[in-house]
Amino acid sequence: MAKLVNKPSKMTVGEQAYVPAIVAGVGLSMRKFFKNTFSKRENGDIATVSYPEEKRIYPERFRGVHRLTHRTDGSPRCVACLCCSTACPAQCIHIEPAEYTADDPRSGYERFPKVFVIDELRCIFCGFCVEACPCDAIRMDTGLHMPPSTDRDHFLYDKDILMSIPGQDGSYQSANPRHEPGDASHPGLSRNKGH
Amino acid sequence: MDLLFAISTPIKVLFVIGLILQAVPIMLWAERRQSAKMQDRVGPTRADLPLPPFLLQFRPLLKTGALLVGVGAFITGLGMVIDQLASQDGRFRVEVGVLVMVVGLVHLGVWRIFDLLIPENGKITLFGLLHSVADAMKLIWKEDFVPPNADKLMHSAAPFISVVPALITMAVVPFSDIFYPALWLSHVPASGVVDAGVQGTALQVASLNVGILYIFGVAGTGIVGAALAGYSSDNKFSLLGGIRAASQMVSYEVTLGLSIVGCFMVYGSLLLEDMVHWQQAHVWGIFIQPLAFFLYFAASTAESKRIPFDIPEGESEIVAGYFTEYAGMKFAMFMMGEYAEVILSSVLIITLFLGGYNLPFLDRGGFTFGFGDTVWWSAPLQHWAVTVIQVVTFLAKLLGILFLQFTIRWSLPRFRYDQLMKLCWQFLLPLSLLNIFVTGIIILLISGN
């Protein structure tokens, strides 16, 4: 069945004369022009962001370039559990775990990443690694884009680079305190001891 | 041919041609910038000229200099004006003082927007004006392409035929009243009558006795350029565009001519300078021929093939109309012709309806505020100052009309083709004929009494 389209009603004389409509339209354009030209930028309606010079403020939970959080002694919080690289759908995280030496209090309790590389070109910025991390060791709260480069190797971010990027608040650590072995708050070096 | 003619004519030709050639890129910029502001964008800001670092270190010096010169010149000029007003020795010489004040104000303005003119990173953008320069450079270096089966001669001739009439029609437009170089420092009486021996020249390239008919005659050949471009391009879109352009421009040429016949009847002359003199002596044309003003405005917008009458270009239907097959500077010449036509139509609107170079209360001798024989306050000015004010007034009116034209372009949607023709033949043309009849009847009634 054909769809009936409502015909526009007969135009009034004023509408047929065009002139009032033209005057109204031109007036609207002029109002916009003067508002956007002579008022301050924030009072005008201009939506353009001239990108490199001015940047739009991202939402607080914007997922930017990764960083590895520090412990209070400056070593990475990461315990090389491989949760992030397992969760990663793009398989862009490469971790080589290593054991602490025998005299280290963390020895036998946790490991550390000898190599931690993220291929930022392969990363899809889904944030699964951050969700998977049990230690709050990897975060995407830097608020940064990757700086552009002509070399693909520049996008392989290793441990040193990842640890050199602070979060949006400027801190290299995480807001969650870490309980090191020996701290009073530490639950104990083995599951049998302590709690 | 006397000496004054020989010297002044090249200067006037240079002034008119320079005005158009400089106005075209500035209009391009203004239109882009203005349309951006209307549509909540920032417009062209990217093309920049980086200042070399060794010049950039003088930036604070320049800024301070602009402020010092501005304040100094303004105060000096103010002092001169007050001094001259107070002395009352009959030699009324405020003009130089006012000029110095204007120089100061310009410098203060530069100081005020200095960070926009020369920003701290040294990238001069001039509010996006450099985009026009970049455009021109790009267009010059583009390949000059002619379609293989096109008529090479006609295809190359069309841009010239389209741009030259728009340039040469400005020759008969007066930019100022008659200027007497010998009297430039003296006072000319308000009537403008000087000794018989003094030679004068108006800022008008040629005073042809056919006057405005010359403009219509020459501007009419612009149609040939558009039609020829469409016809010789070997492209259906171009052909359609050329046909549309020809029919539209021929149709609106009729209304264009008839709409101002009423003005001729009132002014009693075809010479543009006589029309301006009449308006100076009586009242601006827009107040006695308001209908003709609207008709002429609409018809001249259609004549320059711009929105809402841009059917010959109609990019949503026929790519770019008659200049689809043009690239590089040939395309730029069509653009230049279009903008020169806009300038021409604005100039004619000013001359016919807005008093030309007239400023209210300004006569040949200076400012005289008052009505009829009662004079409230008068400020006689030297001859050169009067002429400068007239030219500036004309250019200011031109800017205003151009602003209005641009605003209309970015506000209105395009007509359909049948609407376009209906508007011309069934609406504008009868109204212009009616205008002629009514004007004639009123003139007969007035002169009969």
Q: What this model shows, in words?
A:
The complex is a heterodimer of chains A (195) and B (449). Helix content of chain A is 20%, strand content 11%. Chain A has five helices and five strands, in the order H-H-E-H-E-E-H-E-E-H. In chain A, the strands form two sheets. In chain A, strands 2-3-5 form a three-stranded antiparallel β-sheet. The longest helix of chain A has 20 residues, at 19-38. Chain A starts with 12 loop residues before the first helix and ends in a 32-residue tail after the last helix. Chain B is mainly α. Chain B has a three-stranded antiparallel β-sheet. A two-stranded antiparallel ribbon of chain B has the order 1-2. In chain B, strand 6 (366-371) and strand 7 (374-380) form a beta hairpin. The interface between A and B is medium-sized, with 17 and 15 residues.
Form type of chain A: elongated
Separation of termini of chain A? 76 Å
Bin the helical content of chain B.
55-70%
- Helix/strand order of chain A: HHEHEEHEEH
Throw out a few tags for this protein.
heterodimer; A: 195 residues; alpha+beta; Alpha-Beta Plaits; three-stranded antiparallel sheet; two-stranded antiparallel ribbon; 5 helices; B: 449 residues; mainly alpha; 2 domains; 18 helices; 7 strands
Short description:
The complex is a heterodimer of chains A (195) and B (449). Chain A is an alpha+beta fold and 195 residues long. Chain A is 20% helix and 11% strand.
List the helices and strands and how they pair.
The complex is a heterodimer of chains A (195) and B (449).
Chain A lengths: L12 H4 L2 H20 L28 E2 L14 H5 L5 E7 L11 E9 L8 H5 L5 E2 L16 E2 L1 H5 L32
Antiparallel strand pairs in A: 1-4, 2-3, 3-5
Chain B lengths: L2 H36 L10 E2 L2 H4 L2 H29 L6 H19 L1 H4 L5 E2 L5 H12 L10 H17 L9 E2 L21 E2 L9 H9 L1 H11 L3 H24 L1 H7 L4 H10 L3 H4 L1 H14 L11 H4 L9 H26 L8 E2 L2 E6 L2 E7 L2 H27 L7 H32 L1
Antiparallel strand pairs in B: 1-2, 3-4, 5-6, 6-7
Helix pairs in contact in B: 1-16, 1-17, 3-4, 6-16, 7-9, 7-16, 9-10, 10-14, 10-18, 11-18, 14-16, 14-18, 16-17
